[in-house]
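queue> holo job accepted (adenosine-5'-triphosphate)
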Amino acid sequence: MQPVTKVTADQPGAHLRLVSDRTDTGKPGIKLKGVSKTYRSRDGDVPSLQPLDFHINQGEFFVVVGPSGCGKSTLLKMISGLLPPSTGEILVEGEQVTKPHGNVGIVFQNALLLPWRSILSNVMLPIDMKRLPRAKYLARAQQLLKLVGLEGFEKKLPWQLSGGMQQRASICRALVHDPKIMLMDEPFGALDAMTRERMNVELSRIQRETGKTVLLITHSIPEAVFLADRVLVMTERPGAIAAIYDVPLPRPRSLDVMADPIFTELVQRIRKHFFTQGALD
Ligand SMILES: Nc1ncnc2c1ncn2[C@@H]1O[C@H](COP(=O)(O)OP(=O)(O)OP(=O)(O)O)[C@@H](O)[C@H]1O
Ligand SMILES: [Mg+2]
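queue> job finished
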């Protein structure tokens, strides 16, 4: 049995295309068609992303790795509707993205909690901003805090929590309005290795329990393989798809999975993409 399936191939032209839709369930969470980005600036154009075509299924955990500056955050901002693409179209749950939309929860690299608000009221921020009924969502916010092990910390201020706890609160904030899709840009980049591993296990569990579609960006290849159903590997800027790998490891996954030969083989294969670029990890 071939444990790892590479589902992309070289094509003539500017970028590599996904040639197998083997894992397309026909229920696309996110779909990109020819999406590229060139930033216009006074000093000239900065091509940041070559045209990308790929899909993320509903309920899929999809992870993107790539060298610094290859356009990962740009990709995430375009999917969230914060930034318009230069070409192509993005569909979220079948609808074209033209502006910021309520269907997504975003987690940034730093927790970015408001220091004057309690943990609970930080989690409730999207509800207040969207003017949704507070009473209805309060119970949900408390339930989420319990899910991530922050029960009893609702009234604390952010500085009274550790970095990892703050990051867990920010994940609750991204989930509170029950978005169908979670976009996470290096959410654990600032955490120490042990907290980061614990957060990986927790995030994996939350995704399983809530069935959300997740797009997560990371610089860590082991983190990518641990979390993902599929891993998209990007090239140097302007970013293109180098490969998309299936991760055929069963769920739920504990940290023990990192000793699995499939895990180590996949990590090595992905790492090889960066040997010549030398920009990762
Ligand atoms: N507002 C902007 N104006 C002009 N160029 C930009 C702007 N934002 C990003 N870029 C350029 O686009 C490229 C991609 O940026 P982006 O932030 O998406 O990279 P990234 O892959 O997220 O990098 P990192 O891993 O370091 O976070 C960068 O090389 C940068 O030069
Ligand atoms: Mg970035």
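queue> Confidence is low (pLDDT under 50) at residues 1-21.
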